[in-house]
């Protein structure tokens, strides 16, 4: 009987799943769109039952129906989801509130200040290699303790997106080392056991999920989960990881020097390294691949900005999409390529939802600088796309400071459907960037790791043979020289306006 594998990933605005055969041909795929709630400034949430679990069940059933595969032939399942979320659940894995999302949610600023004072800045830097930031789960748990005491009292476990889905499938509460030791730092010891001393002001040690390796078998599909998902009862389920980690694996980030740029709702990057790199502007942790580390970083808004432009400035393109079926984002790009590099002096700061790295400033604000009467909305849009390239460029400068090698860069995610955007990033950074031949993303990586979990693949080297490059983007040297000047202005704009951004935030309190 032929073997098949399923991988399902839950993202900010969409969940995607894939069913593959033994040669990792895609037999079926399915996606489910959902929203993101923004109930207050700096608060971003998902309803875990109605979004995460609903999407997983819908996609799982759809994959089986589309492929007409007997569920018994699915040999393993892998799931990934948004990283660094905080979801309190009761003993029956029922959410006690909506999930507090990853670094885009920056509600726990006061808790970060308190924890820094409680432990001292030197201790925080020793643990994280940087100050506390909105991507850390510890302050999010403390926020619940301070603001929702009844939820805090009832909480059985604090989970992330992937650990919640895995728990719903198997009944076991797990989190992988890559996500758990980084996002929940310093609540675990490095061996994965709960740290009673650091947990004391935050939560009970028994409220944390068990730390395992990403490809370990977390458990097996329960009778209840089988009825809800269409999967066969007893199917192995790996621990899983966050979306960025799974996507990195799917694109071949398998050894030091391999790098992924994930163009999703936010821009996330993972660079595999052979050592920990301490710099308070970026994040670092152990990577999924044994005996490797990584530098990870991310902008809060990438695809989210293109969505904002579509909904607010390009309503004509949305209307045309509804009437003709032509993609609104493709229509928005018409004429953008004719605008010179640098958007004729227009520079955007993409901090529409605060910013993660390299600023680590939840109060940063978006800015459109250099407007003149000659600028059009096409200039505005090109400048917004270029701003993500400038942000990536800032990170590359940091890597160069630390003499961290980059051998290959693979771009993935929805943004790769816009080749002009990827070319802009290549021109701005001066780096060659490739896209993957298979662009389905994190769910493909989930399926790969599920196969490893049951030892269908013996090593990550076996996985590397499945990964092929698609299009290669080479930087235009003339445009790169032009962009260097604009990069310097971009870097200065935040520094010179930071205080004013914070003053605006104070006025809105």
Question: Helices, strands, pairings?
Answer:
Blueprint lengths: L3 E7 L3 E7 L5 E8 L11 E2 L1 H20 L6 E8 L5 E3 L9 E2 L8 H11 L1 H8 L8 H11 L1 H6 L2 E3 L1 H10 L3 E3 H7 L12 H4 L10 E3 L4 E4 L2 H7 L6 E3 L2 E2 H8 L7 E6 L3 E7 L9 E4 L6 E7 L3 H10 L2 H10 L3 H5 L14 E3 L17 E3 L7 H25 L6 E5 L6 H11 L3 E4 L5 H12 L6 H5 L4 E5 L3 H32 L1
Parallel strand pairs: 1-5, 5-13, 9-10, 14-20, 20-21
Antiparallel strand pairs: 1-2, 2-3, 4-7, 6-8, 11-12, 14-15, 15-17, 16-17, 18-19, 21-22
What attributes does this structure have?
509 residues; 7-stranded mixed β-sheet; 18 helices; Nucleotidyltransferase, domain 5; 5-stranded mixed β-sheet; alpha/beta
**Strand-pairing-aware structural class:** alpha/beta
- The CATH topology of the largest domain is Nucleotidyltransferase, domain 5
**Count of helical segments?**
18
Q: Cα distance, first to last residue?
A: 62 Å
Question: In the CATH classification, which architecture of the largest domain applies?
Answer: 2-Layer Sandwich
Spatial extent as radius of gyration:
22 Å
CATH C-level of the largest domain: Alpha Beta
The averaged pLDDT comes out at 96
**Low-confidence segments:** none
The H-level CATH homologous superfamily of the largest domain, spelled out, is ATPase, nucleotide binding domain
Main beta sheet, described?
7 strands, mixed
What is the count of structural domains?
Answer: 2
Estimated helix fraction: 25-40%
Shape: globular
């Amino acid at each position: 009987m032929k073997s098949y594998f399923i991988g399902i990933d839950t993202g900010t605005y969409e969940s995607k799943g894939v069913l593959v055969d033994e040669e990792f041909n895609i037999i079926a795929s399915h996606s489910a769109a959902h929203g993101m709630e923004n109930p207050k400034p700096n608060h971003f949430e998902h309803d875990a039952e109605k979004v995460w679990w609903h999407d997983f069940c819908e996609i799982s059933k759809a994959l089986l129906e589309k492929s007409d595969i007997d569920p018994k032939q699915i040999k393993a399942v892998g799931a990934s989801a948004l990283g660094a979320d905080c979801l309190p659940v009761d003993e029956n894995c029922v959410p006690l509130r909506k999930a507090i999302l990853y670094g885009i949610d920056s509600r726990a600023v006061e808790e970060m200040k308190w924890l820094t004072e409680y432990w001292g800045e030197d201790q925080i830097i020793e643990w994280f290699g940087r100050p506390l930031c909105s991507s850390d789960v510890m302050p999010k748990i403390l926020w619940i303790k301070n603001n929702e005491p009844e939820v805090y009292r009832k909480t059985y476990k604090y989970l992330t997106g992937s650990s919640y889905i895995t728990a719903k499938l198997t009944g076991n509460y797990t989190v992988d080392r890559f996500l758990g030791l980084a996002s929940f730092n310093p609540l675990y010891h490095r061996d994965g056991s709960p740290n009673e001393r650091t947990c004391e002001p935050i939560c009970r040690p028994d409220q944390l999920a068990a730390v395992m390796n990403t490809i370990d078998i977390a458990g097996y599909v329960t009778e209840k989960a089988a009825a809800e998902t269409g999967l066969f009862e007893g199917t192995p389920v790996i621990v899983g990881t966050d979306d960025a980690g799974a996507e990195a694996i799917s694109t071949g980030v398998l050894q030091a020097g391999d790098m992924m740029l994930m163009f999703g709702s936010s821009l996330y990057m993972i660079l595999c390294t052979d050592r920990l790199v301490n710099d308070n502007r970026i994040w670092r942790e152990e990577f999924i691949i044994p005996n490797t580390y990584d530098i990870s970083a991310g902008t809060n808004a990438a695809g989210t900005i293109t969505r904002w432009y579509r909904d607010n400035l390009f309503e004509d393109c949305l209307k045309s999409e509804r009437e003709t079926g032509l993609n609104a984002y493709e229509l928005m790009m018409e004429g953008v390529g004719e605008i010179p590099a640098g958007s004729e002096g227009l520079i955007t700061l993409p901090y529409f939802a605060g910013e993660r790295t390299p600023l680590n400033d939840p109060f940063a604000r978006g800015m459109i600088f250099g407007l003149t009467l000659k600028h059009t909305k096409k200039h505005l849009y090109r400048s917004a796309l270029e701003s993500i390239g400038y942000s990536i460029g800032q990170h590359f400068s940091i890597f160069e400071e630390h003499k961290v090698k980059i051998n290959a860069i693979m771009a993935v995610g929805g943004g790769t459907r816009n080749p002009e955007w990827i070319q802009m990033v290549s021109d701005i950074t001066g780096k060659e960037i490739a896209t993957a031949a298979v662009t389905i993303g994190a769910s493909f990586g989930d399926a790969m790791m599920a196969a490893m979990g049951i030892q269908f693949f013996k090593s990550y080297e076996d996985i590397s043979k499945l990964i092929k490059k698609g299009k290669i983007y080479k930087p235009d040297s003339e445009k790169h020289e032009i962009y260097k000047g604009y990069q310097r202005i971009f870097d200065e704009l935040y520094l010179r306006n930071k205080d004013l951004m914070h003053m605006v935030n104070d006025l809105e309190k």
